[in-house]
Write a structure and sequence with these properties.
There is one protein chain. By secondary structure, this protein is of the alpha/beta class. The chain has one domain: Rossmann fold. It contains eight helices and four strands; from the N terminus they run αβαβαβααβααα. The chain has a four-stranded parallel sheet, with helices on both faces. The longest helix has 20 residues. The two termini are about 30 Å apart. The structure holds iron/sulfur cluster (SF4). Iron/sulfur cluster binds next to α5 and α8.
Amino acid sequence: MQQEIRQNYGRMLDEKLMELEKSGEKPSLLLHACCAPCSSHTLLYLHERFRITLYFYNPNIAPESEYDFRKSELKRLVSELGFNIPVIDEDYDPKPFYELAQGLENEPERGERCRRCIALRLRAAGKKAAELGQDYFTTTLTISPHKDSSYINRCGGIISGECGVPYLFSDFKKHDGYKHSIELSRQYCLYRQDYCGCVFSRRNKQ
Ligand code: SF4
């Protein structure tokens, strides 16, 4: 993927939110969710301006019990927030992740394995958004200070071109979003995992 001039994705999101506030429109949004903590601030930030559907698609997560627990924590969060938000989830199938990770097992975080992992999940989200006729799609992943938000947004923009659904550019860590997600995790007693998700990140955790 070609490098491009660094954009202020947080500002792009704020401008979109202001535009929607002025117009009074409330478009639909498929929000790819990696876990409950990352979804907490993101849901609170977006829910007044979008009709959200959450999409839990994370074939990178291992083992299966961890996948199931992160998914159940996401559903508990939505229920405890009192939001009437559908959660679409996929059955556990890590095969596509292990295919893309072949030969990249020892890559550091933010390396090529992570880029492919993010693209896999965003591509599935774009496809699902197109199937459901959603107005936008995006992901909670930009809230993490460990992830390359610029890459995530550029990837989303490319996939938008493939699936025909506009990508909602974002940087959810802006406005202390990451800090807020930690506070919300405490408030709702959310499980905060100590590794990103895949077996390789689990092995490398400190
Ligand atoms: S470290 Fe995280 S982003 Fe990178 S490949 Fe593993 S699960 Fe995916």
